[in-house]
Structures are given as C-alpha cells and as structure tokens.
Amino acid sequence: QMDSQSLEERRALLAEAERIAERVLQDKKAILQYQQRIADNRELLGKYRRKELPNKSYIYLGGFFLKLPGPRIEQIVKQDQERLGKWVDGTRVNMKKNLARVNQLLPSERPAHIVELLTKDVKNADGEELVGDAIR
Predict the structure, then answer these.
(1) Which of 20, 52, 116, 128 could be stapled to 47 by a disulfide with Cβ–Cβ 3.0 to 4.6 Å?
(2) CA 27 to CA 19: how far, in whole Å?
(3) Please, which residues bridge with residue 131 across strands?
(4) pLDDT tens profile 110-134
(5) Rounded Cα distance, 136 and 84, in Å
(6) pLDDT of residue 69
C-alpha cells in the first residue's frame, strides 16, 4: 500500500509527464501547420515555374498585400521554404526530447493509445490527410 508521500510523488510525476506531453502535442500541431505552408509554397513555386501566373502578382506579407514582380515573389517564397524547413527540424528535435523525457518519467506506462495519438496521421475537418508521421 502506498503512503501519502509516495502518492504525492506519483501525482507530481504524472503532472510533469502530462505537462511535457502537452508540449509534444503542441509541437506536432506546429509541424502540421508548417508542413501545410510548405505544401502551399511548393504549389505556388510550381505555378511560377510553369509560368501560370502573371509577371506581377499580389503577395500577403506582414498584414499587407503588396504587388511585386514574379521573380521577387519567388525569391521570398523560397526564403520562406528554407525558414519553415528549419522550424520543422527544430520542432521535431524538441518533440523527440520531450517524448524521451516522458518515457524517462514513465518508462513502463506508455499506453498504445498515447503512442497512436503522437504518431498517427492527422486529418483536417474535411477528412483530408494533412501529413504522415510527424515524428521521424
């Protein structure tokens, strides 16, 4: 039988694991958002490559719509792709560290439904798959 001190220690351990697991879920959501932007940017770059867009187009930057020449927009979008790629990589590193910490706190208590929640494909409200496994 557990005494009150060990119960309190267990409660604190579970609370810490829950707090870290919440960060993992936030990181996964951020990765999904970054990957959606990467896909949108890739689609836009493809349209420029196939010359399906006019020489000058509008782009939304920092709360403003600006009309810029196509090559400048292409350059901005490529820079955004690089930045997003770095953010995805950094977020994945954080997510892996946090998962390792949860496993360290609760090594024998990693239920299958938690593993599935953290690694399964996520679908948007329309049922379209957004991304595969966010944890690589």
Answers:
(1) 52
(2) 13
(3) 122
(4) 555 566 655 555 554 445 544 444 4
(5) 17
(6) 93
Two structure tokens written together for 88: 């995805």
Cβ-Cβ contacts under 8 Å for 10 (sequence gap 6 or more):
2
pLDDT in the model for residue 109: 66
Cα–Cα nearest to 18, from 119, 114, 116:
114
What is the rounded CA–CA span in Å between residue 103 and residue 56?
Answer: 52
What's the pLDDT score for residue 87? 96
Q: Which two tokens stand for residue 134?
A: 């966010």
CA 43 to chain centre: 19
Rounded CA separation 106/1 (Å): 20
* Strand pairing report for 122-123 and 129-131: antiparallel
Q: Alpha-carbon torsion 113, 23, 99, 105, what sign?
A: negative
**Which residue bears the tokens 């560290």?**
97
